[in-house]
Amino acid sequence: MDNPQEIASSPSVASPPFEAGVKRTRWGQLSDGTIQRLFILPTLVLLIVWNIFPLFYSLYLSFTRYSHSGKLAPVWIGTANYSSLLNDPKLWKSFAITGRYALFSVLLQILIGFGLALLLRAKFKASGLITTLILIPMMLSPVVVGLFWKLIYNPLYGIFNYLIGFWNPSTAPIWLKDYALWSIVIVDVWMWSPFVMLLCLSGLKAIPDYLYEAAAIDRASSWRQFWRITLPQVAPLLLIAVLFRTIEAIKAFDLVMGLTGGGPGNATETVSVALYRMVFQGQARTGPASALAYIVLIIIIAMSNIYVRYLNKMKEA
Fold it and tell me: How far apart are CA 10 and CA 39, in angstroms?
């Protein structure tokens, strides 16, 4: 009969599964947060490679003399690119064009979008269908919108001049030449007023009915109800719409390129178009273009901070 001490001291057959069980227990002790981080890690690495690295690399290029079309390495020149850009009257003209474009387009989008939201607030027959049809322009690609509006503006066979009463093509205005900036503003308003309408409509439907009922009991007029109830309740969403649309108007590129290409001449050369021409046309000045991109970024960040601070003050009031 075997000695019990030898049996006890001999290697157990069950020891390998036990050790594997210990390993499984150690893996099982990982918290849910750690496991989630392990799954998110590849996505973070991809974002860093595709977003963060180009951001800092372009910042470095903005302080250098460099052209991506040449074979020379970047040469550090400090803030020379920024000073030359800020002293360039042609660039200031592009900023002025961008400012006018942003002002007119955003203002008209707010007025038309808010007006459409007020009309569609009340439920009526086919209101859902009408709302869907109004939202279609913002679902289209800006390049496609620019191309077919270019056909609509055509003075020979386009329908825009006929719609506004110019039946004779010889006397009709050439919109993309005579009113180039306004032609882009009209298309931008047509395309993005539904976005403002959607935000305002969600805000209008969130206003409690008892506020209007109490105002009606106090015999407040419709105009007074609008200024005291409707506008203050929708104002935060209106400000968000202004913020988003202002940022997009400053960065406007694809719609402008699809309609006018920045022309005629430099009449519609926004900052984004000027940046495009700086990189891909002429001498391909990558360094100054990177500096211009960061100037635009600083302007957008500054404007966003002003909007956000004002929005926070409205919420606290």
Answer: 43
Predicted local confidence at residue 310, as pLDDT: 84
279 falls within a domain: yes
Provide the domain limits for residue 39: 14-61
241: CB partners within 8 A, 6+ apart = 109, 110, 113, 195, 196, 199, 200
Cα-Cα-Cα-Cα torsion 156, 159, 165, 166, nearest 10 degrees, comes to -10
pLDDT tens for residues 76-103?
999 999 999 999 999 999 999 999 999 9
At which of 5, 28, 61 does a domain end?
A: 61
Half-sphere exposure of 226 (CA within 13 A, CB side): 6
Same domain, 311 and 179: yes
Retrieve residue 254's tokens: 């694809």
Residue 9 belongs to some domain of the structure: no
Higher-confidence residue: 225 or 317? 225
| Residues 274 and 94: beta-carbon distance below 8 Å | yes
Distance (Å, whole) CA 91 – CA 278: 11
Flag whether 137 is in a domain. Answer: yes
Total domains in the fold of the chain? 2
Q: How many CA atoms lie within 13 A of 33 on its CB side?
A: 0
Distance from C-alpha of 52 to C-alpha of 292, rounded to nearest angstrom: 18
